[in-house]
Amino acid sequence: MKDRTSFDRRHWLKGAGVSLALPFLDSMSWASGENSSTPPVRLGFMYMPHGVIMDDFWPSEPNRFLDSPPPAIESLGPILDQCLMIKGISGVPISPFNGAPHALELSTWLTATLPDSDTRSRVNIAISADQIMANYVGSETPLPSLELATMPQTWKENQEGLHEAYYSHCSYRSPTQPVPAEIDPRNVLNRLFGKSEKFGSVSRANPLDRQMLDRVLGGARDLRRTLAKGDRLKLDEYLDSVRAVERRIAAIENRQKENALEKSGLRSAGRDSNQSAPIEISIPEGDKRSEYMQVMCDLTVLAFQTDTTRVSTYIGSTPNGVSYPELGFTDQHHSQTHHENQEEMVGKVAAITKFNIDQFAYMVNKMARLQEGDGTLLDHCIMMWGSGLEDGNNHTRKNLPFILAGRGGGTVNTGRFLTDLRGNQGDLLTTLLSCAGVPLDRPIGIATKQIEELKTKSARGSQDG
Amino acid sequence: MLLPHPNRFLSGHLKSRRTNVFRCVGVFMVGLAIGLVALVTVPKGFAEEEPTQPEPTREETLRAEAKVIFKETVQPFVRKYCTDCHGSRPEGGINLESALKDPGTTSASLHWRQAVANVRVHDMPPEDAGEVPTDEERLEFLDGVGKLKYLAPMDPGQYVMRRLNRTEYGNTVHDLFGVDPSIGNRLPDEVEGEGFLNSISPLQSEIFLELANEVVEQVVSPTGMLPTEVQKNLFRETPADPNEYRNTARQVARRLTRDAYRRPASESELNVLMDIFVLARDHEMDYQSALGMVLKAVLVSPQFLFITPVEHTVTEESIVALDDYQLASRLSYLLWSSPPDPELASLADQGRLHEPGVLGSQIERLLEAPRSRALFDGFGAHWLGLRGFADQTFDLEVFPELTPELREAMLDEVRLLFQSVIDENGAIFQLIDTDYTYLNGPLANLYGLEDHVQGRDMQRVQLEDRNRGGILGMPATLATTSLPNRTSPVRRGYWVLERVLGETVPPPPPNVPELKETEQKNIEGLTLRQRMELHQSEPTCANCHKLLDPIGFGLESFDAIGRWRGVDDVGGKIDSAGQLSTGETFSNPAELKTILALRKDAIARNLTERFMAYAIGRPLEGYDEVVIDQLMTTLTEDGYRMRTMIKEVLSSYLFTHRKIKG
Question: Is B370 helix (H, G, I), strand (E, B) or coil?
Fold first, then answer.
């Protein structure tokens, strides 16, 4: 049986391009009428493997960040004042898995934790930052979190005896439960806004499904009592996932009910005149990587704009077997990063990096143009782009490359380049969750502190103690 | 132009070593293990009988012997040469101090395996270490570590209830409800077989519900319309008397779950479904639609989505035999990627499937059916690294002939060879060395046999060219180890050692030294081989590259898509002669193949280990190796036959038992 085809030949892209507006949807009206409320902070992560060309990526000097940005982030030009670059965040030291730099760059990215070395052939790492946030705010939206990827998560290679999944997953719902990502934009739309018979329309959720699931869950709990311990843990994952489905159905029902009320005039739509309408999604006709990635970015924007979820991850590219035909390179990204300073290869890596940042910039630029509450959508987001290595040539991870965009509801002090931060990946993730208002009972992974430098003064004050 | 680093030829860079290959260097205690074979075929009640059986005494002898060897050979060697660096603050993650404390555990076996790989190729102890062991000491150590497996307690490993993968899901709804199996492709892509992620997320559960809705829509006609054939078969007629509804609905649910849960449902499981029937009826659904709701519930139930044991497995035992229903599912999904057919189901109902004669003939029957091609798609393609081949990137300006049709034929060639060796119960090493292959028109072109074979259909072809025939000389395998625009001798060498011979090659050191300036002279016009040979002067690389490179060079006569060639990309004449690290010399791919095919035991053992890992869904560890030794004894006596191997693995203690505690 053949796999879904690879990126450049994927079948969904064949056929007519479709443009889709979602008239049935309202963007959330955070600042309207009597129910005035502040938009929540949303958190999004976008990943590229193998590190960057440092001369291209890091600003040459801190005080010239705004007027002379480095070439790699050119496309962020319009919103540089809403971006923050941070240097001095080290990755997780990977000893004892020195032979697995690429398996670990993605799996440690949001966990800041190494896999357990005694059970390395199974997945056993830690809950990831995005899933910690999903646990905290996920029940308030139809989807607890959104996970997207460009390539299927089936790379089969285990370095240092580590389970293959470490190669292709960044989100972990629990230490033993990697979260699969969706790669088909049509399925993502379906997930976000309910089953659609005809592309672009939505049929009603079957009201009985939730009650049916409720009884199935009851039966599963009976079954659980008769099972051995290992089987029970497996069944718990099932129970957890089905409960999430129940919540999603309830949220969609709720949304449809509100819509109906508004349509019948029983309730005012309450849309602010300066509130942007939901963006349109168009599925491109060709099979260009950039267009595909931009659809995935649009879906993230739409999900945030409609408050369908508040946390997302997008694995823009995976650590192996990926090439960039759109840029005219058939070589694999990985092999080019071992460039030994040869000009041609360095040039290719720089172009690949810029390509990835361009897609991120497409997303955050769009967010900056959408009105929400008393500001823009981006004002209420923290979007992080980054890689799991600093320099792919030497596999270093002393200064991991990161770009933050969005002021996180006034918690992130943007428009700056911070150097010499002396923090680690766990510190950064802990800080970002704190900015997003997620209370933590313990730091994430190897964290020992928060990176106060990146916060605004008011955010620092509020996090005291 | 600078000289590229040799690791670059290995695009994955630190191309992994699998965890599940036990390279027991030295003598396997074959003779002593014969007595243990009897245990393997006792599927039930082994655990409680252990103390009274004579065989464990045998095992105890081996264990006692292993203890002595550990104390007299392994421990002193490690203390003398290793623990200075690999002690409590372990370098390279290899902690031999903890391995010495508890040498028989799973985590220790991991450290041992790495130690063996490094010591064998003289990579460790490093040459600048104060004292270096003699060759004799090395061999004794390697031999001794090979026996530590006997310290592991008898244990089939955990077998946690498993979720159906996307292929199995599609085939199951097809077999049971006549739905197109491609429906499973809507689930997220995933690794199947060894490395399968047996977990379930909200995303997957959402899709399972969607798919269930779709299956019900296809199977159950809307009210007022004629029922579908599948519906008639599943739900039968609506009873004339509505008072009968509950009664007949329960019968429907009982039949439905026998197939869908792959075992009889308990009364309480049926009660849940009846609750749902009542729920639907209360919401004004007619009889047939209400049963549709029951069907939907079945399709999202854990009993359908997972292979669950029959109830009442609560027991004091920590190791139990699989019940016959689980065994039927396990066999059927493994060999067919499909649910048990009526014959298997009926044998499970009779409680006879585990009987050795019955089990053996059922395995034969499953292997003979066309559906057993699932074994290549699920296992064979994974083993040979071909699973991603259809989508592997190639530079189409260099290889314009590599069309999707040609790729399919290349893959089919390997599959048909694999199947022919199963069908004819040939020896495993025939996969390496045969005198026939399967070609169609486009593929024959690549072979230069376009005069002999035309058309789209694959046909069996007798080969005269000894360089071809077997997986070492096949376009698909030669291409899968290549880079987009050229060959990679390192990757080919690594592939042969690791995938075919089952050897563990240590990874490159974490910080690869820069090549010295002096070596970067006059490389213009050198062949790839000549350039790579320059690297062997770097001692940290040479230890491993002298294992990998000769094999890769020996296959340089084939280009990156497996065509024969006399000159390489830069026009240099191909030199495919060489000498293996074990001393044998060859002058072309045919001779290389002949030499490697003689390693019958290594080839068969590697395939057996990999198939076992695939069958039990986890990497091999600890006690597994003892079981593999036993299988190898049987297999050797039988001439390393393919079907025998499959049957032995699927009748083994590891496959038919599971640990439920501890």
Answer: helix
Nearest to B93 among A95, A101, A181 (CB): A95
Residue B76 has pLDDT above 90, yes or no: no
In the chain, the amino acid numbered B44 is: K
Contacts of B232 (CB under 8 A, 6+ apart): none
| Chain B contact present for A176, CB below 8 A | yes
One-letter identity of residue B144: G
> What is the Cα gyration radius of chain B?
28
Helix, strand, coil percent values for chain A (each to nearest 5): 40, 15, 45
Out of A154, A176, A182, whose CB is closest to B203? A182
Please give the Cα distance from A52 to A350 (Å, whole number): 7
Q: Do A220 and B395 touch (CB under 8 A)?
A: no
The secondary structure of B49-73 as a DSSP string is: HGGG-SHHHHHHHHHHHHHHHIIII
Q: Is A235 in CB contact (< 8 Å) with chain B?
A: yes
- The three-class DSSP label of residue B96 is helix
Q: What is the pTM of this model?
A: 0.81
Owner of token pair 């006709």: A285
Q: What are phi and psi for residue B657, nearest 5 degrees?
A: -125, 165
Integer Cα distance of A18 and A291 in angstroms? 13
| Burial state string for A175-200 with b = 16 or more CB within 10 A and e = fewer than 16 | bbbbbbbbbbbbbbbbbbbbbeeeeb
Residue B262 and residue B328 in contact, taking contact as beta carbons nearer than 8 Å: yes
Concatenating the DSSP letter of every residue in B558-570 gives B-TTS-B-SB-TT
Q: In chain B, what is the straight-line distance between the N-terminal and C-terminal CA atoms, in Å?
A: 59
Predicted local confidence at residue B332, as pLDDT: 97
Instruction: Answer yes or no: are the C-beta atoms of A108 and A92 closer than 8 Å.
Output: yes
For the CA atoms of A404, A410, A411, A414, the dihedral, rounded to the nearest 10 degrees, stands at 40
Torsion of CA B501, B502, B508, B509, to 10 degrees: -140
Type of residue found at B577: A
Question: Rounded mean pLDDT of B126-142?
Answer: 83
Contacts of A122 (CB under 8 A, 6+ apart): A163, A176, B618
Top-confidence range, B21-25, B105-109, B507-511: B105-109
CA dist., res. B240 & res. B55, Å (int) = 64
| Residues 6 or more apart whose Cβ sits within 8 Å of residue B109 | B22, B148, B149, B152, B621, B622
Closest residue of chain B to A331, computed from CA coordinates: B484
Tracing tokens 């580590």 back to the chain, one arrives at: A162
Of residues B95 and A350, more confidence is placed in A350
Looking at residue A12, what is its pLDDT?
Answer: 35
Each residue's pLDDT tens digit, A25-75: 555 665 444 445 689 999 999 999 999 999 999 998 878 889 889 999 999
Rounded Cα–Cα distance for residues B19 and A201 (Å): 49
C-beta separation of B212 from B300 below 8 A = yes
pLDDT tens for residues B104-128? Answer: 776 677 777 778 778 877 778 877 7
Query: Are the beta carbons of B118 and B506 closer than 8 angstroms?
Result: yes
Report d(CA A407, CA B499) in Å as an integer.
Answer: 51
Domain A7-189+276-462 class in CATH: alpha beta
In angstroms, what separates the C-alpha of B68 from chain A's closest C-alpha?
26
Beta bridge partners of A18: A283
Which residue of A128, A130, A169, A227 to mutate against B (max B Cβ within 10 Å)? A227
Q: Could you tell me the pLDDT band of residue B315, with boundaries at 50, 70 and 90?
A: low
**Strand pairing of A371-372 and A281-283?**
unpaired
Percent of chain A with pLDDT over 90: 52
Within a 13 Å sphere around the CA of A417, how many CA atoms are in the beta-carbon half? 19
Burial B479-491 (b: 16+ CB within 10 A, else e): bbbbbbbebbbbb
Q: Which residue of B has its CA nearest to A336?
A: B8
How far is B630 from B34, CA to CA, in rounded Å? Answer: 7
